[in-house]
Amino acid sequence: MRKNLIIGVTGGIAAGKSFVAGEFRNLGAAIVDADAISREILNSPLVVRRILNRFGSGIVTGTGGIDRRKLGKIVFSDGKKLKFLEKITHPAIIKRIKYEAAAKSSKNITVLDIPLLFEKKLEKTADFTILAYLPEKIQIERIVKRGGLSKSEAIQRISAQMPLALKVKMANIALDNTQTKKEVRKQVTKLWKFFANAPRRRRGITGRSPCPY
After folding, report:
1. What is the CATH superfamily name and number for domain 5-195?
2. Contact 25, 109 (CB under 8 A)
3. Which of 201, 204, 41 has the alpha carbon at shortest distance from 121?
4. What is the pLDDT of residues 145-192, one digit of tens each?
5. Where are the domains of the chain?
6. Are 125 and 105 in contact (CB under 8 A)?
7. pTM for the whole thing?
8. Please, what is the Cα angle at 77 between 159 and 73, to 5 degrees?
9. Nearest 5°: phi and psi at 3?
10. What is the DSSP code string of 49-92?
């Protein structure tokens, strides 16, 4: 297996990217979890102070952190507020992602589990990219069921991301997550075997690759 092969795994909200990344973890990949990094950055003292100065104390949890659900309802209904939040959090998140990816460079395969992989041009750090995708109707249903959001709120969150049709064109491999977990698991295992023998690509290349299954 080649050293330091980096795989970017992404997908729309509730599309199952973290399940795919988790299956790679089970097979032995090192994981860089952008969601976990985001939560940590969001609750860092400096960021908390700036968020409270802009959005008020109504979004604070009982333990003094940021209530992500309340904050989400605010920023996803107002594009300017979302941009403000991204401006104060995303530079630190991206820096941390790149740092953790470099720190795991001795691993055979590192998976970057990143919702905004293409939006933030982080696909340039990966040798291959995988998109976990769902039809929007199913995606909306999952968001509502999982997060207690309304249908309109689910649509707002989907609209805040790059259109899925464009991501499908940019990803090297698109993985249909409407299948059962058992079937998705089989496909991830096949991908793992494919990556074990895959040559290092020139990072930054986008576009579909021949699917190994």
Report:
1. P-loop containing nucleotide triphosphate hydrolases (3.40.50.300)
2. no
3. 204
4. 887 789 999 999 999 899 988 999 999 999 999 999 999 999 999 999
5. 5-195
6. no
7. 0.88
8. 105
9. -70, 145
10. HHHHHHH-GGGB-TTSSB-HHHHHHHHTT-HHHHHHHHHHHHHH
| Bridge partner residues of 204 (DSSP) | none
Instruction: State the residue for tokens 């997060």.
Output: 147
pLDDT category at 213 given cuts 50, 70, 90 is very low
Strands 173-176 and 30-33, sheet pairing: unpaired
- Whole-number Å distance between alpha carbons of 187 and 194: 10
Identify the residue whose tokens are 């609209």: 159
How buried is 15 (Cβ within 10 angstroms: 0-12 exposed, 13-18 middle, 19+ buried)? buried
Is the pLDDT at 210 greater than 80? The verdict is no
With 0-12 / 13-18 / 19 or more C-beta atoms within 10 angstroms meaning exposed / middle / buried, residue 80 is exposed
Per DSSP bridges, beta strands 30-33 and 109-113 are parallel
Question: Rounded distance, CA 147 to CA 190, Å?
Answer: 31
CA pair distance 55, 38, nearest whole angstrom: 18
User: What is the residue type of 147?
Assistant: G
Pairing relationship of beta strands 173-176 and 109-113 according to DSSP bridges: unpaired
Coil vs helix vs strand at 4 = coil
